[in-house]
Amino acid sequence: MADVGDVTTGAAEAGTLTLGGDLEVRRLGYGAMRITGSGIWGEPSDQEAARGVLRHALELGVNFIDTADSYGPEVSERLIGEALHPYPDDLVIATKGGLTRSGPGAWEPDGRPEHLREACEGSLRRLRLDRIDVYQLHRVDPQVPLEASVGTLAELQSEGKVRHVGLSNVSAGQLEAAREIVPVVSIQNRYSVAERESDPLVDVCERDGLAFIPWFPLAAGSVSEHAGPLERVARAHAASPAQIALAWLLHRSPAMLAIPGTSSVSHLEENVAAAGLRLSDDELESLAAG
Hints:
Blueprint: E1 16-19, E2 23-26, E3 30-31, H1 47-59, E4 64-66, H2 75-84, E5 92-97, E6 99-100, E7 108-109, H3 113-127, E8 132-137, H4 146-158, E9 162-168, H5 172-179, E10 184-190, H6 199-208, E11 211-215, H7 220-225, H8 227-237, H9 241-252, H10 265-273, H11 281-289
Parallel strand pairs: 3-4, 4-5, 5-8, 8-9, 9-10, 10-11
Antiparallel strand pairs: 1-2, 6-7
Helix pairs in contact: 1-2, 1-10, 3-4, 8-9
């Protein structure tokens, strides 16, 4: 596998992008979903180990952390506040509201304005923030007009509780409608080398200066089906297939902001090491072709 190298500059190898014109972040971030319990429900089995992963992410040069009030629920945000506050000046924390939980593995949309306001206030408290850098609508609620949900995020921004607005799990049409209401700085959709339905949105983000944040970037089952090309390229770089999958994402577009998540320090180091991998045009073509 690729060496991690200098832990203070590891994530810096991915390069940077700017969110909303004023927040420069490294393009290899950390997704804080998996520091919770099984099924993204409840407390982790070892809370201090979870806090240690968060601290080590910063030691590796990560300065963008993505979370949500529904991770736990509330557990991920609370652990981030406990582990990292007071925050480094360059750390950007993005969180999300708009999904509720009734149990392990259960996710229900709630885009009502009153719920989003309550969710944002709770995130501010748990994260120990006066203003959230990037607040994202976690999922469009089919029972609530998009204009009502996004309009609430615009109000929270005007009130100084949210710096920038992002969207998650959206279509191109929903993005266009939302941008009529409020400036949008990021899109977070499911995307990987093996799952590329959001390819057109990646291109929109690159064209318009938005960040594209792929969730489930290693898409465990699908990437395994993609194993042949990944394994061939991995052998050539003395890397793991997962590292190659991350490197492909970073090569795919300068708008890409990858956020692989893990509860393991060793996996965290492996993920961050992918920032230093450089793939050839032939390798990129073979991976894209599958």
